[in-house]
Amino acid sequence: MKKTILLLFLLTFSVLFSQSVREMFSEVIIDWVKGDISSAQQKIEEIFYKPIPAENLAEFWYLRAKLMIETGRVKEAYEDLRNLLVVVPDQPEVLSLVNNLEFILQGKESDSFNMKTLKTLPGFKDGIEYFFTPTDVAVFGESIYIVDPVNKRFIKSDGSNFTVKTLSFQPEQVFTDRDGNVFLISRDGRVFKNEKEIGKFLNPIGAGVLDSGEFALVDVDKIVLISENGSKREIPIDGKPLIIDAEVYCGQVVVLDTWSNSLIVINVDTESQKNIPLPVPTRSFEIFYDGSYLLLDQSGNLFHFDGKKLQTVGQIPQYVNIEYEYPYLFGMNWDKNSIEISLLKSSEPIFVHIDSFELTVDKMFLYVRVEDAFGRDIDLVQLFSDLFEARGRVPFEVSHELREYTVYISDEEFLSKKVYQINDRKGYCVVVPPDIAFSDEQLAVLKLKNVKLYTSPEASAALKDFCYKSGGGIGEPHFLKHNLWVFSFSYVKPITEEIIPISVSFKTPDMNYSDTVYVTKRVIELGLK
Hints:
Low-confidence stretches: 1-17
Structural class: alpha+beta
Oligomer: single chain
Radius of gyration: 25 Å
Helix content: 10-25%
Protein name: Tetratricopeptide TPR_2 repeat protein
């Protein structure tokens, strides 16, 4: 009888202790959502001095690792996560965070490339012709923009539905900037911004929109930069090139000279120019997220070229034109009157961050960033994402918003001290001195906290590279908004003290990049208050 009483006492004590630990875990989650990171960190450390239920160990470790990163203990968090993979080797959010940290801390370079067509946009759908001769594509947020010059059509699609507008001119090229403005270049050389004409040229080839907000194009033998107020600046191109393609990247305009089969890289600030000879006869090129190149040769073979090494990516002879917006390759297939969307990337990670969440009586709302390895927004997330509750896929809705960055100028103490005092993840653009010290561990903190660094042109090449990797750049920040994806779903209300993981996943052919938050009965009670 005494043994039975003792056993019941121990079982009751164990259950109560587990409930107490789970209640503390719930408070950690609420502190994290509110941005009280110091309190959340203190509580999670207290939990690890107590017995943690074995079935919840992964959840406790994962949340603790994220808090450690936010407070600067990056390498320690990385080692903990690697140990956690021994326990849960296939858990997507743990794998994603480990991959992210390895990429940052170890400087892993891109190797083999994966390309897989995942979606086709048909020009004919349900008996209706939306486009017939597509020549160019651009994306912004949840929208795909298509131009069909023969039919004078400008088409907007969310990947499923189409809205068609007939124009008074033949739009042949289309571009967007990070504020959502749409630039069109007509077949007769006119340039439009949101359908308002802003210039006319002999043979304009659009390159894109620079971080300064200037729209860059090439006109025969010069670069033309059109500012937001309509003023124009010209930069002559050395030699007598025959230019057939152009792109922008980090304060540079890159053009393809078919005479010399080389790329001419023009720095728009210094106007300096350099030539990069190409190893294959190239008819079109795109720029990878890190500044390397995707080359399309005369036979439709696609290559990756980093300036030294040439790698074969695939064959796409069926496309009359391609556009690349990381990680999407858009192929214009005139034979099938369609646009095919492929995911094309290497081993670099995609960063998925659930910045916060909100609860109503019926629904949960997750506020999510999806960025490339250099902190730039990824579009069309609604087409390639999933949401999981308690590891099972659930119905959900996705909407796109633009959230504005807070901008301020800081001193040399920002990376060593002040960055850790930023608690919310709503987004900051911070201008720092050109002689500031920095480290790879701090880059991991910046990415998790949604902080983009900017510095002056006088900074070292290493610091400039660090700023670009954070998602920032050189000079004063110009585009002050970023993508925010709002995932909403009807959540299950737990009746016990169980911990329910809620995960957002961005799917690629090689991996599901994921982040996870947790809900408990106590979290819901506190959240609704």
